[in-house]
Amino acid sequence: MDIRAKIGERIRELRDKLNLSQKDLAYQADLDRSYIAGVEKGQRNISIVNIEKISNALNMNLNDFFNDAKFNS
Amino acid sequence: MDIRAKIGERIRELRDKLNLSQKDLAYQADLDRSYIAGVEKGQRNISIVNIEKISNALNMNLNDFFNDAKFNS
């Protein structure tokens, strides 16, 4: 699976776990909702600054964010 | 510390551990040496695709790459 798709899937899983809408997450991460939607669909080659914004908005540090089987290969 | 600087520091540490030059790493990651130099100086808002290229060139998956105290905050 392409890394963009893995990142998108991970964000969606974590967002769902927190019962946040894309709009909520976008607001907390100070990003556009349409950008979040594109990232979750695996359509964005997201930068590290935006990954950190999103993971912080999901109450996670980057170590925890990438601590998932998806990122073991 | 800014996330770009943390990424740069992590790459430099791992590259030094493998006794690779920036030129070697750039070749294996299929990126420009000047780009690697900029990333290591914390000057680049690197994308996830390029982080994966570099971590693979350092024989690491992303889980291992981010498994460092720098990324715990």
From TrEMBL, chains A, B:
Pfam families attached to this UniProt entry: HTH_3
Gene Ontology molecular function terms on file: DNA binding; DNA-binding transcription factor activity
Domain HTH cro/C1-type: from-to ranges: 11-65
Highest taxon listed in the record's lineage: Bacteria
Keywords from the named record: DNA-binding
A GO cellular component entry from the record: cytosol
InterPro entries: Cro/C1-type_HTH, Lambda_DNA-bd_dom_sf, TransReg_Diox_bact_type
Signal peptide: none
Keyword Transmembrane helix among UniProt keywords: no
Keyword Endoplasmic reticulum belongs to the record: no
Protein name, UniProt field: XRE family transcriptional regulator
Record organism: Hymenobacter rubripertinctus
